[in-house]
Write a structure and sequence with these properties.
Helix content: over 70%
Radius of gyration: 18 Å
Distance between the termini: 41 Å
GO biological process, one term: iron ion transport
Largest sheet: none
Oligomer: single chain
Bound molecules: MU-OXO-diiron
GO molecular function: ferric iron binding; ferrous iron binding; identical protein binding; oxidoreductase activity
Organism: Flagellimonas zhangzhouensis
Family: Belongs to the ferritin family. Prokaryotic subfamily.
CATH architecture: Up-down Bundle
Function: May alleviate iron toxicity in the presence of oxygen.
Number of domains: 1
C-alpha cells in the first residue's frame, strides 16, 4: 500500500493490520462452522447442523462488516486464505466444546484490537468494535447455555437425540 494512501486513512495503520487479521479469523470461524454442520449432518444431528449452517453465515457477515469498514475508512481489506479446517470430531459434545473454545479466542482477539485502538487514540476503530464486543458476549452465552443443556440432558440413551432437538431453541 502506498504511503500517501496509508496517510489518508481515517484509522491507524496498526488498526487496519489487526482488523485484516480479524477478517481472517471470522472467515476461519465461518469455515469451521461449515465443517461442523457437515459433521452434524453425517452423524444424524440435523438440528445442530442447521444451527451451524446459520453460524457459518453469521461469521461471514462479521467478516464482511470489517471488510466494508476498511473500505469506508480508506484502508485495504485483504481477502483471506483459509486452510487447516478440522472435519473430525469425537462427539456432539466435542463439537460444542470446540465452538466455545473458538469463540473465546475470537473474543480475546477483538479485545486486543480494542486495547490497541485505545492506545493509539484510534476512536473510529474503537467505536466500530463496540458491536463486536457485545456480539461476542451473546455468542459465548449461547454456547455456554447449550453446553449446560447437554450436561443436564446427559448423553446416555435417547439423550443425544434430545440434545439435538433442544438445539432448536437457539436457532433464531
Ligand atoms: Fe464472529 Fe463468533 O465470531
Amino acid at each position: 500500500m502506498k504511503d500517501i494512501a496509508r496517510q489518508s486513512m481515517s484509522i491507524k495503520v496498526e488498526s487496519m493490520d489487526m482488523l485484516n487479521g480479524q477478517i481472517k479469523m471470522e472467515a476461519h470461524a465461518s469455515a469451521i462452522y461449515l465443517a461442523m454442520a457437515s459433521w452434524c449432518e453425517q452423524n444424524g444431528f440435523f438440528t445442530s447442523a442447521k444451527f451451524f449452517f446459520k453460524q457459518a453465515e453469521e461469521e461471514r457477515e462479521h467478516m464482511m462488516k470489517i471488510f466494508n469498514f476498511l473500505i469506508d475508512t480508506g484502508g485495504s481489506p485483504i481477502s483471506p486464505e483459509i486452510s487447516n479446517i478440522n472435519h473430525d470430531y469425537s462427539s456432539i459434545v466435542d463439537v460444542f466444546e470446540s465452538t466455545l473454545e473458538h469463540e473465546v479466542k475470537v473474543t480475546t482477539s477483538i479485545h486486543n484490537i480494542v486495547k490497541k485502538a485505545r492506545e493509539l487514540g484510534d476512536i473510529t476503530t474503537e467505536r466500530f468494535l463496540d458491536w463486536f464486543v457485545m456480539e461476542q458476549v451473546e455468542e459465548e452465552n449461547t454456547i455456554r447455555d447449550i453446553l449446560d443443556m447437554i450436561e443436564v440432558t446427559g448423553t446416555e440413551g435417547v439423550g443425544l437425540q434430545m440434545i439435538d432437538n433442544q438445539v432448536a431453541n437457539w436457532i433464531e
